[in-house]
Amino acid sequence: MLTHSSHGAEARIAFAAAAIGLLLIMLASIVPPDSGWAAIIVSYIPLHTLLETISIILALLVFTIIWSTRNKSLPRNLSIIALASLASGILDFSHLLSFPGMPDYITPNSTDKAILFWLAARLAMGTGLLASAFYAWHKPLNLLRSCFLLLFTLALLFTLHVLFLWYPGMLPAIYIDGQGPTAFKRNLEYLVMAVFFIAALGFSLHLRRPRLFNASGFFAASLLMAFGEMFFILYIDIHDTYSLTGHLYKIAGYFFLFRAIFSDTIKRPYDLLEQSRRRLDLTLCTLPDLLFEMSREGRYLQVYTPERAVLESPTPHLLGRSLYDVMPVESADIVQQAIDQAAESGNARTGPFSLEIASGSTDWFEVSVARLNNTPAPPSFLVISRNITDRYRAEQSLRTLSHAVEFNPLSIVVFDSQLRIQQVNQAFTRLTGYQEAEVLNRPPHFLHASGTSARQADTINREILQGSPWSGEIQGTHKDGNPFTIYLRVFPSRSPAGEITGFLSIAEDITDKKNYTILLEQLSRHDPLTGLPNRELLQQHFELFCADNNPVAVLWLDLDNFKEVNDALGHTTGDILLQQIAYRLRDNLYKNETIARISGDDFVILLTNATENHVIRRIQQLLELVVEPITLPGQVLSLTASVGIALWPADADSLGSLLQKAEIGKYKAKTAGRNSYQFYESQMQEMAGLRLAQSNALKTAIEHNELHLVYQPQVCLEQQRVIGVEALLRWDSQSWGSVPPCDFIPLAEASGMILSIGEWVLDSALARLRSWLDQGLPPVAMAVNISAIQFEHPGFTEQISQLLQRHQVPPHLLELELTEAMAMKKPDFSEQRIRHLHAMGVKLSIDDFGTGYSSLSYLKRFKIDKLKIDREFIADMDNDAGDQAIVTAIIQMARRLSITVLAEGVESARQAELLKRFGCSQIQGYYYSKPLPPEEAARYIVGYNPQA
């Protein structure tokens, strides 16, 4: 049988009792009734008395419990059960006293008499349960009717006692000694049993419904009493086992009846009260508020808040204490003022105040106070303290957000769903000039610039009203008529149902940014120093010129020796020089010509209709413009330029390729002597490729043993003996054979390889000199050329020292050759470095003297050991009086400064004779010997110095 969940454990107990009762019936029916009880009736009477007494007590307890609680509007069903229990208890009592073997109960006792009272008791109890099972439980029985029923029950009991005690003969026979119960008695027992079963069925139907009473207990009581009646149908003798078992079932039935009544009238109300109390506790636990009862003086009378963790002090510590005992004075004053106000007006509320709680953090609270009307005693007050920290902080955040919107530098506008302005901030007023009152409930059309068409404005509005975020640039007009540009972002706001309730717009004034963008675009396409177009804009001009399909000439103009001028005069003066040249070239361009600065002192000029004669004529004009003197702060300077030319479309299709080829032509023009121009030729590209390949191959020349040294003797004219050799570097490439030094030395300097190559040369030369000394050759000086990069390297002097020490070569046998330009480039640095080398004992000489910017004061300052006259002055000296004069002047000057002079490139006896006559100390050249391999050089030294 299915039961409603609210009957729960009660139903399970009831069904278990019914099952056990049915099982015991089955077991008892197997055992035959024992008629031997009649022989021991003396021992049965106490047992019977005990069993009946128990059932009488239970029945009367049921009545007492129900009748004592009838004023609590109990259902009338319980009143019926109470009266039935009363009748059953009284009749069972009379049955007990009428039982054979007991003292006569008013009239002589007999089995018939006892059974009559028994049957009346069972019928009364069964009728009461049956009525309760099918009667409506929700209807209470009023006091008057219940008293009437009690009187009726007592009257009925009196009538039955009179009938059973004095007029039993009026009733059919119930029990015949020796024969047992009569058929009439059995039929009555069947009737009683049926009444109990029907009552049990009625109560079982209540188990399918929500619980109104303990239907499962009444069901078990009815069913057990019905089972007991089965034994009273079966017994033969009132003392047999069936009779005893029937009494036990009756007691069990009364027990479940008592249990059900006790549960519904006493235990269940207390359980419901406890549940209500727990529910109240849980409710208080879930409330976010603290609840107290306090006196007028602010003392804690009750603490209703079960959640102790939120209290600063435990409840026992709060009771009887005042606000000032548990709270800071400022907070206690606020609450006490609210209590005082509630005493006058009945209720009060405080504003937010902060309070440090048990966790150590500071929370915000507000207090509501209500006066309790518990007169005549002094009034108390119900105090509700609410933690409003989240709300307070949310309000603060909202206030902060409101300030952030109001004082935001971006213009913020709130629109309604029809795009009418509802709110603006100060930035909007600054941007547009309109106050908030002037724009409320207006659409934003009046802000659009005059050039904005109505169709365009409507299109923007339609896109916004569709509900998707929108952004874009908008042209607007200030109240005073000045235009502005904003970048506008519009976001829809929606209700929880998803409907659009309005829009929020954020506008950034990008007027200045747009102007800056235009300026930056201008700067990004022009050279910042000269204002000329840069490479990007030059590309656009080139494409525009090419669109006419007329030949275009690309001129790469590079100033000659600008780096030296920049180093000598400073970068500021160099910048002024570049600006003057740029302005001069720009101002003298023809129509359909353009100029750009692409780097440093490099300018590119585009010429259209570029016939060869036209290009040559324009280049000559441009070179003449460059040569014109330029007035700089403190001096007047004149420069020259070299120009390379590439033609479109003859030389290349793209500007990049044309620039590359024009640059190659520029290098060719510089090589040819500067202040000239050179058209690009295909072999120039081949030479540039060759230089690149040789530069890459030179990086592995030392590793592949492609470099070697040769030695050219240096002869003293007076002694006619070899006093030194110059170590000369040679490169025998696996790919190109013997590469001239004039080709690969510049490549080494440009690629940075000159440092490693220079160190190799020094190491190899000193190693060779050490070898000659070890072979017994007379000591000779080893002259080695030094590049500017080597000379300026920070570790150069330390490198020389280490190499001399490694090879154990006397320092005075090492002679380092510097060019004039190298020494004069950084005079102060050169003087310091030469001083360090002199201190080590190393000799220094100036190579190619006379070809650079000579300065006699610097020669004196540097204390050079030797001057080498350049071969340019020696080559025509025997026929050219001018060269003779120059050579004579150099020699005389050097002798005055105590500097040794060596002439290079001596190739004839005439040249040697003249040099000896002029007083030259040493000569070097093919007249004596060409550069020799190491072994031949050693033999030459020995052969020329026989005395060694």
From TrEMBL:
Record field: transmembrane: 12-31, 37-66, 78-95, 115-136, 148-167, 187-205, 217-236
GO MF terms, alphabetically ordered: cyclic-guanylate-specific phosphodiesterase activity; kinase activity
Location of the GGDEF domain: 550-682
CDD domains for this protein: EAL, GGDEF, PAS
Signal peptide residue numbers: none
InterPro entries hit by this protein: Biofilm_reg_signaling, EAL_dom, EAL_sf, GGDEF_dom, MASE3, Nucleotide_cyclase, PAC, PAS
Keywords, ordered alphabetically: c-di-GMP, Kinase, Membrane, Transferase, Transmembrane, Transmembrane helix
Domain annotation PAC: ranges: 470-522
Keyword ATP-binding appears in the UniProt entry: no
Ranges of residues in domain EAL: 691-945
Superkingdom of this protein's organism: Bacteria
A Pfam match: PAS_4
PROSITE patterns: EAL (PS50883), GGDEF (PS50887), PAC (PS50113), PAS (PS50112)
Enzyme class: hydrolase
UniProt-listed Gene3D superfamilies: 3.30.70.270, EAL domain, PAS domain
PAS domain segment(s): 397-442
Known EC number: 3.1.4.52
Record's protein name: cyclic-guanylate-specific phosphodiesterase
Species of provenance: Thiopseudomonas denitrificans
